Amino acid sequence: MLSKKDFLMGVFSNLLFLTIGGYSGVYISQNYRIPQLHSPTELIQIAKEYYKKFEEIHSIKKKNDET
């Protein structure tokens, strides 16, 4: 079991990195031209399309290897 000191150091460390990451993200977003991310539904659709293409390519290779 973790001691109280180890637990608090872990919480503090994670909170510090979360804060630094959040601040960095906001700074970069405000000062640089970066493209907006797709919405979660669009990302899921893109992932499904990628998976289908990947599956088709590998099923074709598998069929060619069997013959």
Structure commentary:
The chain has 2 domains: 34 residues; 32 residues. It starts with a helix and ends with a helix. The mean pLDDT is 89. Helix content is 82%, strand content 0%. It has 2 helices and no strands. It is flat. The longest helix is centred in the N-terminal third of the chain and has 28 residues. It is mainly alpha-helical and 67 residues long.
In short:
This protein is mainly α. Helix content is 82%, strand content 0%.
Secondary-structure map with pairings?
Blueprint: H1 4-31, H2 40-66
Keywords: Membrane, Transmembrane, Transmembrane helix
Transmembrane segments: 7-28
InterPro entries: STMP1 (IPR027854)
- Say how many strands there are: 0
Q: How many DSSP H or I helices?
A: 2
Q: What would you call the structural class?
A: mainly alpha
Range of helix content: over 70%
* Radius of gyration (Å): 22 Å
Largest sheet: none
Round the mean pLDDT to the nearest integer and report it: 89
Distance between the termini: 58 Å
Strand-residue proportion: under 5%
The poorly predicted ranges are none
List the secondary-structure elements in sequence, H or E: HH
Overall geometric form: flat
Total domain modules: 2
List keywords for this structure.
mainly alpha, 67 residues, 2 helices, flat, 2 domains, 82% helix
